[in-house]
Known about the structure:
With 155 residues, this protein is of the alpha/beta class. Helix content is 25%, strand content 28%. The mean pLDDT is 92.
Amino acid sequence: LERKLMEREVDLALTDGPIEHPLLESCLVFTQHLRLVAPAHVASVAAIDWASTDVLLFNTDCFYRSVFESWMKKNRVTPRRIQTIESYQVIFACVRAGLGVCCSPDVMLPAPHAQGLHVMTPPDLPEAPVYCVWRRDGATPLLMRLVDHLRGQTA
C-alpha cells in the first residue's frame, strides 16, 4: 500500500495500522471486532479441537494475525498448524470446506455471514484499529471530508 500511495496509484488506503513515512499522513478512523470463523457445524469456541485444527491466517506482517496469535497464546490454544493464505475469499472457502478456522475483521466477513460458516466473538478477542493513510501532498478537501466522515462513524 505504501508503494501505491507514493506512486499515486491510490489516494487513500485503509490499513490495520499507521504507515510511518515522511511523505504520508495517517489517523485512526475506527475500530472493528475481530471474529473467529469456523465451519458451520462447530457449535462454539469450546467445541474446537485445537490439536487437530489448522488456523488459516494472513502473512506474519498482518496486524490481525498478530492479535489472534496473542489471543491463542493467552488462552493456551495450540492449533495443529498455522497456514498462511493471502486471500480472505480463499480462507473462507477453506473454512467452509472444513479445513480449519480463521480470524477475520468484520469488514471482510462475507455478508450476511455466508452459509457454511459459524462466526463467533470470543469475549477476550480484542478489537482492531483501522487507519486511513494518504500522501501529505494529496490531502484534498474532498479526501479529508471522507476521512472525517469515517472518523465520525464511531462518534
